[in-house]
Structures are given as structure tokens and as C-alpha cells.
Design a protein that fits this description.
358 residues; alpha+beta; eight-stranded antiparallel beta barrel; five-stranded antiparallel sheet; 6 helices; globular
Length: 358
């Protein structure tokens, strides 16, 4: 298991913790040992469920228990997971979320299911190399997000989740066709000014989507009226969409080329950040949306925000409605045999992991 660094140190390396091991014996037999807990390896079991999926089960869960009971187990888990004690965490809401996570995860310490995850395919046109990133999520601590590119969009998919937004959900979406020019550094400190700029882009995006839907509706009407014509020309919608996509992609590329290599950056006053050690210069910014929800993934909605590209290994996202800032740093672990066999296989994997929690 790869654990993120202790909150909020996103630039620190991932932490490694073995969960099980397999001993290959003579005559092709094998023994499985569970590594969970603090009493050493003990008897376990592995079952192949289906392609790209398997389950592990501990046969001696008493090895997971501690002499001091649940309180000792919680204190040990807290030191490992957060690098601190509950007394060090003064925020009551954060204490509540941590307790919730401990209760939830400790229920499944004896039986786990593993599913294959492909790393996102890359393209020379990508804004930065896609991959896995550690990100700050307020009182939830650090979580793992997969950044992938899909034409005019970039998507951040949660690989680890929390009581509000579970793993598999698309936490942020970046609209690469709508770059945002930041104001000068003094005006950038004003949250209302940044909010005004982002909301203007949001309204522009809404109008463009409405216009596209109206044009598609007209094209469908025209297509039905000409259905009997065997010499019918290619539907205008196909030419228009391709042209629009090419224009928007060219616009995003042009914005990238014309943007300065770096510009000053500072968080607006009133925006909360778990990590004050964020970069003070950035390369580019784009309009985006972030997914928020109540506990148990209730009433989810996409809200406006701004994506900030700092460098090849770090980016940020300002959640306007939450007045919160997330900083993401690339995971520099080399995962072998994790490449997707095709773009279609990767897209299918994203769809499958999202459907598990929808």
C-alpha cells in the first residue's frame, strides 16, 4: 500500500507499507501471509475474482488487535496516518472526519479487494505529463488524484476518497479551451476580483453550451426532414463540431504559446490553504469546475474554480464556493506494467471506477 505523506506536506515522498506476501513453495504450491497489524506475518488467503481483480482475506484477525484495545489501535493508526496525536488537532470538524475514517477503514482490515488501475496515456499536446498527484483536501488531509487529458478537457479523478467525495469520482475538470488571465498581483489579493473574472468565464461557457445544444437540435430537425434523400450531404453538425473543436484546440494552443513563462501568483485574502508553502509564480490558468458534496456523497454538484499550472510537477485549484485552495504535487514512483493497452481501455477503466461509487 502506498500512503500519502503526512498532511500537508505534498512534496514529500509516498510511504510504503506491505499488506500481504506470497511464498512460492515446491510443486507449484504457495502460502499467503497477511502483513496487517503489529504482530508479524500470519495466515492469509488470496482469491482471483475475475480479470484484473483479486481479493485478500486474513484468517487470523486477532493479529490485528492490540492489548490496549480500540483506543491503542486508534492512537497507533493516527500516528501512522497523520503523524500526530488527536490532541494536536484542534479543529473539531477535522477530529470528526478522522474518527469517521478510522471507523470505516478498520471494518475492512481482514478482507480487501484490488482492481487494476492504468496510468493515463500521454500526448505531446498535453499541458503537462499526466499521472498521479498528491493533493491537499482541507480537513480531509492528503488524497491521491489521477490527472488525465481528454481533448479540450483535463480531468482529475480521485484514486483515494473521503466521506464527502469517494474514490472514482471526478474531483476537478479543467476547460483547456478557456484560459484565464490573472489580474496584477495587488488585484489578485482581492477574492471578489478573482471571483468576478471566473464567474464571467462560467457565464461564457454556459452561453456556448446553450448555443451548441440549440444548433444540434436544429441539425437533428433538418436531418429528419431530409431523411429520404439518398444524395444527402454530410450533416452540417459534423462539420461544424469538428471545426469548432479544431478552433478551440488551436485557441488553447495559441494561449499556451503566447503566455509568459511565469507570472507572479498569490492566494486571494480569505482563501484557506492547508499548505502555505505554495509556489509564488505560475505559468497558466484555466477555468474549471470542482465537485463538492455532503457526507455520504449527498447532493453532489460541480462548482466553478480556477486551475493554476505552477510547473511540470505541481498545480493548484481554487474552489470559489468553498474559498479553499488545493495544492497538488506529482507522485514520483515508478509503477511497472501500469500502462494502458489502449486509449479505449483507459477510458473504460475510468468509467468503471466511477460507476462503483455513483
Amino acid at each position: 500500500m502506498y500512503l500519502p505523506p503526512h498532511d500537508p506536506h505534498v512534496d514529500d515522498p509516498m510511504r510504503f507499507k506491505p499488506l500481504f506476501r506470497i511464498h512460492l513453495m515446491e510443486r507449484k504450491s504457495a502460502t499467503v501471509e497477511c502483513m496487517y497489524g503489529h504482530k508479524g506475518p500470519h495466515n492469509g488467503h488470496i482469491q482471483i475474482v475475475k480479470k484484473d481483480e483479486f481479493s485478500t482475506k486474513c484468517n487470523q484477525t486477532d493479529h490485528h488487535r492490540m492489548s490496549g484495545g480500540r483506543q491503542e489501535e486508534f492512537r497507533t493508526w493516527l500516528r501512522e496516518e497523520w503523524g500526530r496525536t488527536l490532541e494536536d488537532i484542534f479543529h473539531e470538524h477535522m477530529q470528526e472526519l478522522i474518527l469517521m475514517k478510522f471507523i470505516y477503514t478498520s471494518q475492512y482490515d481482514n478482507c480487501l479487494t484490488y482492481r487494476r488501475i492504468y496510468l493515463p496515456p500521454s500526448s505531446p499536446a498535453d499541458l503537462l505529463n499526466p499521472g498521479l498527484f498528491k493533493g491537499t483536501y482541507g480537513s480531509h488531509g492528503l488524497e491521491i488524484v489521477m490527472l488525465s487529458f481528454h481533448g479540450k478537457k483535463a480531468k482529475g479523478t480521485k484514486i483515494t476518497g473521503d466521506p464527502n467525495i469517494p474514490a472514482g469520482q471526478q474531483t476537478v475538470e479543467i476547460d483547456l479551451a478557456h484560459p484565464i488571465q490573472l489580474p496584477d498581483i495587488e488585484n489578485l489579493r482581492n477574492f471578489n476580483e478573482l471571483s468576478r473574472i471566473v464567474l464571467e468565464v462560467q457565464e461564457q461557457v454556459r452561453r456556448e453550451q446553450q448555443q451548441q445544444e440549440e444548433e444540434e437540435g436544429q441539425d437533428e430537425e433538418e436531418g429528419r426532414s431530409r431523411q429520404g434523400d439518398s444524395q444527402q450531404a454530410e450533416p452540417p453538425a459534423q462539420r461544424d463540431d469538428a471545426g469548432a473543436e479544431g478552433t478551440e484546440a488551436a485557441g488553447a494552443a495559441a494561449a499556451q504559446e503566447s503566455a509568459p513563462n511565469s507570472q507572479p501568483f498569490v492566494l486571494p485574502v480569505g482563501v484557506i490553504s492547508r499548505n502555505e508553502d505554495y509556489p509564488r509564480t505560475c505559468r497558466m490558468c484555466f477555468y474549471g469546475t470542482g465537485l463538492i458534496a455532503g457526507h455520504g456523497f449527498t447532493s453532489p454538484e460541480r462548482t466553478p474554480g480556477i486551475f493554476i499550472l505552477f510547473d511540470d510537477d505541481r498545480f493548484g485549484f481554487i474552489w470559489l464556493e468553498l474559498k479553499s485552495f488545493s495544492l497538488y504535487s506529482r507522485i514520483k514512483v515508478s509503477f511497472q506494467n501500469a500502462e494502458a493497452p489502449s486509449r479505449e481501455a483507459f477510458d473504460e477503466m475510468l468509467k468503471n471506477i466511477q460507476s462503483m461509487t455513483t
